[in-house]
Amino acid sequence: MTTPALLPLSGRRIPTLSPGASSFTHHRATLRLSEKFILLLILSAFITLCFGAFFFLPDNSKHKRFDLGLEDVLIPHIDSPKEGKHESLRDKIRADHERALQEAKEKLRKSREELQAEIQTEKNKVMEDLKKTNAGPKPLPPVPMPRVVGINDGEPPEPDVKEKRDKIREMMKHAWDSYRQYGWGYNELKPLAKKGHSTNIFGNSQLGATIVDALDTLYIMGLHEEFKDGQEWIEQNLDFSVNAEVSVFEVNIRFIGGLLAAYYLSGQEVFKLKAVQLAEKLLPAFNTPTGIPWAMVNLKSGVGRNWGWASAGSSILAEFGTLHMEFVHLTYLTGNPAYYQKVMHIRKLLAKMDRPNGLYPNYLNPRTGRWGQHHTSVGGLGDSFYEYLLKAWLMSDKTDTEARKTYDDAIEAIERHLIRKSNGGLTFIGEWKNGHLERKMGHLACFAGGMFALGADGSPDDKAGHYLQLGAEIAHTCHESYDRTVLKLGPEAFKFDSGLEAVAVRQNEKYYILRPEVIETYWYMWRFTHDPKYRQWGWEAAQAIDKYCRVSGGFSGVKDVYSSTPTYDDVQQSFFLAETLKYLYLLFSSDDLMPLESWVFNTEAHPLPERAPNRRLDLVFCYYF
Ligand code: DMJ
User: Fold this and answer.
1) Structural domains for the chain
2) Does the annotation flag 399 for ligand binding?
C-alpha cells in the first residue's frame, strides 16, 4: 500500500526538506500533528451542526401529515383535533377539489358567448355589492370652475327703465339691510317685531336661510359689499351638523341651489364646499324601501319621515321631483355619482308607474311605491316637478330627451284634464281631485305661464306658437287676479266658479306672502316676446309691494289683498330676496344679463349654468354605468 500523498490545507505540496531519516521522522511527526488538527476541526464542525439543528430546525411534533390522495399537505394543527375532525376536513377539501374540477370541465364545454355573459353577471354582482357597502369606485377628481357667460351689468338703455331697476335695487337694499340689522343669522326676519324668524321647513335651526337665498341676487345687482358680508357669515358660521329636522326639498332649492349659484357667479370655493357638505347630510333621506326620499330629514341623525298631513304617509311629488338640477350639478362638480343616481332612480321608478288619465298624483308612498290620494295640481304639491322635467332637458343642452318626453306627455295630460277657459274668457289651471276638476287656481300655479313659454321651443308637432300663447294666457289670468284686488297684489288662490272670475272666496285664501310666481311669468314672457305690457305689469306689482308690504323693518306679507287697511303677517320670506326681487330686477335689465341660452334658473330662481355638466356627465356615465 503506498502512503498517500498528504496535502496541506492550502493545497500546495509540502516541500521535502532532506532525504535523510531524521528529516523523515520529523516529517512524520509534522504530519501526525496536522492530521490531529484536521480531525479536531471536523469534529468541532460536526458538534456545531448538531447543536444548531437541535435549536433551529422546525419542531416536527407540531405538524401532522394528511394523505389527501393527490399530494401531501402539511397542515398546522393547533389544538390536536380528534380523528373525526380530520376525516370531515379531509372530506371537505376533497369535495371542494372535485367540485372545482367539475366546474372547470363544464366551463370548457361552454361557448365563448356563454362564458362572456357569465363573467358580465359576476361583474354586475360585484358592482352591486360594492354599491351596497358604499365602497364603489372613488369619485372623479373635482372640476375647475367652468367658464360662465352673461354676468355683466345689464344696464338697460332706456332711462325710465333704468330708474325702475334702481328702485328694485333699493328695495333689495332695504330688505337686506333690515335682515342684517334685526335678523342676522336667523333663517328669516320678522320686519314688524324686528327680530329673527323661522318656520318648520328649517326645523329649529339657525342656518341663515335669507343670507344663502339672497347671495346671488346681491351679486347680480352688483351689491358686492353685502355679498362679501354674506360670504363671511357663511365661512364662519354655516354649519350643517345641527340637530334639526329640515325639509329636504326646501333645503335643496334654497340652500344647495343658492350656494351653487353663488359659486358659479363668484367662483368662491367655499360655496361649493358648503353645498357638498349639506348634500351629504340630505342623502340619508333616500334610505327608504323605494328610494323615494322622505320629506324631512334630521341633519344630525339622518332619520327621515314624512309630513303628518300628507296622504297616508306619502312623499310629495313637487318635493321629491325637485332635486334633479341641483343633484346633477353636485355630481358634475364632485365626480361623485351618488347624487345623480338618486335622482335618476326616482325618474325610473316614476316612469314605470301607471298614471290615472296620464296625470301624476301629488302623493306617493315611499314604503309601498304606490300613489296616495289621486290629487293632481300644477300649483302647490305638484308644480316644480313639471318645471324640473323641462329644465333637466334644458340643462343637458337638450340631450336629455327622456326628460323632455316625460314633460311633453305630462303637459299634454294637464292641458286635456286641468286647463280650461272661464266664461269670461280667462284661461286657468284647475286641480284634479279624485276624478273631478276643481275650478280653482293657486298663486303658485302662475309660474306655469313662464314654464310653457320656456318649453315652447322644442315642443312636439311644432306647437311652439301654441305654448307661447298658453303662457301669455296664463300671464294674463294671473295679472287679472292681481288687478281685481284692492291692493293690486294677488291672493293665494282664486276661483272660476258660480260667476266668480279670478278672485279669492275664502278668507284663508286672500293673503299675499311676497310670492314671486306671477312676476316670474312676466319676466319669461318679456324675454320671449318683448311685449311692453309685461314690464308694465311687473312695475304695477313692484309699486304695490313697496306701498303695502314695506315697513320700517323690511317687507311683510299681508293677510287680505281685498282690504284697504292691510294687516301684516310679519314675515319677510327668504324667497322674496331670492326670487321676487331678482325677477323684477331682471325684468328691467337688458337681456344679456343672465341670458336664458346660458343659464337655467332653479325653482328658487338660483341660476345654474346650462351645458356645463354635459361633457363631464358623459365621463361619469362611462366610468360608473
Ligand atoms: C319658492 O320657494 C319656490 O318657488 C317653490 O318652488 C315654491 N314656491 C316658493 C315661493 O312661493
Assistant:
1) 159-622 (1.50.10.10)
2) no
What span, in angstroms and rounded, lies between the C-alpha atoms of 501 and 567?
25
pLDDT in tens, 244-273: 999 999 999 999 999 999 999 999 999 999
Q: What is the rounded CA–CA span in Å between residue 516 and residue 522?
A: 10
| pLDDT tens readout for residues 502-548 | 999 999 999 999 999 999 999 999 999 999 999 999 999 999 999 99
Q: What is the DSSP string of 90-143?
A: HHHHHHHHHHHHHHHHHHHHS-HHHHHHHHHHHHHHHHHHHHHTT--SPPPPPP
Taken in order 313, 318, 324, 327, is the CA torsion positive or negative? negative
- Cβ(452)–Cβ(477) below 8 Å: no
Q: How far is the CA of 571 from the centre of ligand 1 (A)?
A: 15
**pTM passes above 0.90:** no
Compute how many other C-beta atoms are within 10 angstroms of the C-beta atom of residue 194. 16
Any idea which residue has 306627455 for its cell? 409
- H-state helical runs in 502-555: 517-529, 532-548
Best residue for ligand 1 mutational test, from 246, 378, 444 (most atoms within 8 Å of Cβ): 444
Of all helices (H) and strands (E), which one includes residue 371? Answer: none
Per-residue pLDDT averaged across 207-229, rounded? Answer: 98
Q: With H, G, I as helix, E, B as strand and everything else as coil, classify residue 77.
A: coil
pLDDT at 624: 52
Nearest-angstrom CA–CA distance, 276 and 338: 12
Contacts by 223-229, CB closer than 8 A, 24 or more apart = 223/169, 223/172, 223/173, 223/176, 226/173, 226/176, 226/180, 227/266, 229/180
Sign of the Cα torsion 577, 581, 583, 589 reads: negative
CB atoms within 10 A of CB 508: 9
- Catalytic residue, from 188, 245, 492, 569: name it: 492
User: How many CB atoms neighbour CB 141 within 10 A?
Assistant: 8
Using alpha carbons only, give the angle 159, 164, 167 rounded to the nearest 5 degrees. 125
- 209 C-alpha to center of ligand 1: Å? 14
Q: Is 473 left (phi over 0), alpha (psi -120 to 50) or beta?
A: alpha
Residue type at 86?
H
DSSP-based three-state secondary structure for 375: strand
Distance from C-alpha of 246 to C-alpha of 201, rounded to nearest angstrom? 5
Fill in the DSSP letter of residue 6. P
383 is catalytic: yes
- pLDDT of 314 > 70? The answer is yes
Which DSSP symbol is given to 583? H
